[in-house]
Amino acid sequence: MTTNFTIRDEIREYWSLRAETFDLQPGHEIFSDREKKAWYALFQKHLGSGADRSVLDLACGTGVISHLLFDLGFKVTGLDWSDAMLAKARAKSKKRNSNIFFLTGDAERTGEDEGSYDVIVMRHLVWTLVDPQTAFAHWFTLLKPGGKLLIVDGDFVRKTPLGKILNALRTGFEKLGGVSKSNKSPAMVETHQRILSQVYFKDGARESDIAAMLEREGFCDIEIQTNLSAINRAQRVHMGFLEGLERLTLNRYAICVSKPLD
Ligand SMILES: C[S@@+](CC[C@H](N)C(=O)[O-])C[C@H]1O[C@@H](n2cnc3c(N)ncnc32)[C@H](O)[C@@H]1O
């Protein structure tokens, strides 16, 4: 029997199933001013203040990052391919009275016009890209000359030695029926693993590899920030003990690059 169900469909379905509880999880939605300030600092450091510049939040999910960018004065468009995620994002925007435009689409081939954005931002998208090199080339065309691309992600596959121990302890604890804040059923964990085994960065999304791929597409002024400890520490407070400790060991990073002016 043949099937047309692709890896892209599987990723979209996985996140649609997670939409309902996504914002309950620390590390996704923001639960303190301390964390909010840490995010503002990261964005301001790399992008400056919004000043009404247009930003595209790729794979915006429930709009957590879109809202931070809106607060900073950007004109925000959030794009995601999961309608369940977008429904949450739109409801949040209505509740907060934020003027953000949300649209359905594939981040790897958005259909947006060339040269239409000052800034492109994404959190936790790159690790799951099916064809990152083509996506990076596409994002280059979407930016205006001098525009900036900011990736916030992590290499969640290659763990530090302490991270491995904490991960094993936490997984064991959850198997014994311990309380987890990750809200992932065993079936979801399995789907996550199956997806990970099929994507380009299945062995981990290393920041140096991503930077080299971006450079190949013509991006310049590459800045890599590997110290996200202010954000990690603020998130940890709202997590279970083991999950919180594990968070401090994750290889998370921000990569900011520019499109040359000419
Ligand atoms: C881990 S969530 C991150 C959501 C949001 N960026 C955040 O940090 O809160 C991943 C999101 O990426 C979306 N996604 C993954 N691949 C995508 C693609 N190729 N096009 C559009 N959305 C995608 C999923 O639907 C999901 O909403």
Descriptive report:
The chain is an alpha/beta fold and 262 residues long. The chain has a single domain, classed as Vaccinia Virus protein VP39 (Rossmann fold, 3-Layer(aba) Sandwich). Helices cover 45% and strands 19% of the residues. It contains ten helices and seven strands. The protein has helices spanning 7-22, 33-47, 64-71, 83-96, 132-142, 161-175, 186-196, 207-216, 229-236, 241-249; strands at 54-58, 75-80, 101-104, 117-123, 143-155, 220-225, 251-258. A seven-stranded mixed beta sheet has the order 3-2-1-4-5-7-6, sandwiched between helices. Helix 3 (64-71) links the parallel strand 1 and strand 2 (75-80). Helix 1 runs antiparallel to helix 7 (186-196), helix 2 (33-47) packs antiparallel against helix 9 (229-236) and helix 9 (229-236) packs antiparallel against helix 10. The chain starts with 6 loop residues before the first helix and ends with a strand. The model has no long low-confidence stretch (mean pLDDT 92).
Topology of helices and strands:
Elements: H1 7-22, H2 33-47, E1 54-58, H3 64-71, E2 75-80, H4 83-96, E3 101-104, E4 117-123, H5 132-142, E5 143-155, H6 161-175, H7 186-196, H8 207-216, E6 220-225, H9 229-236, H10 241-249, E7 251-258
Parallel strand pairs: 1-2, 1-4, 2-3, 4-5
Antiparallel strand pairs: 5-7, 6-7
Helix pairs in contact: 1-4, 1-7, 2-9, 6-10, 9-10
The structure holds S-adenosylmethionine (SAM).
The site of S-adenosylmethionine (SAM) has 20 residues, from α1 and α3.
